[in-house]
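Board notes (copied after class):
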Amino acid sequence: MDGARELMLIDTFGTADEDRFWDLAAYNEGKHVEFEQGVRPAVLSTDWIPQGADGKPGSGEAGTRNPPLPPDITKKVSALYVDLFERLTGEKFR
C-alpha cells in the first residue's frame, strides 16, 4: 500500500527474469508488449543446466556454478534492469 493506503502491488515482486513486465502505454492501446528477460535466455543458450530441485544435475555436475555471462550480455541485462527501474519508480537510476 502507498502512503494513501492505495493498493500498489499484489503477490510478489521480482526481477525481469522472474516476472513478466508489460509496457503500460502499449497495454492501454490494447497491445501486449512484454519486456524481454535478461539473464534467463542467456543462460538457456549455453549448455549449462542448473541442478534441479530433486538434486539431479542437468548437463553439468551437481553443485557446479553457472558460467559468467559474456560482457555484451552483462551490459544488455544491466540496461534492461535500469530501464525497468526507471519505468517502475519514475526516477532516474544513479
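Comment from the instructor: Residues 82 and 94 are 9 Å apart (CA to CA). The chain has one domain: 24-89.
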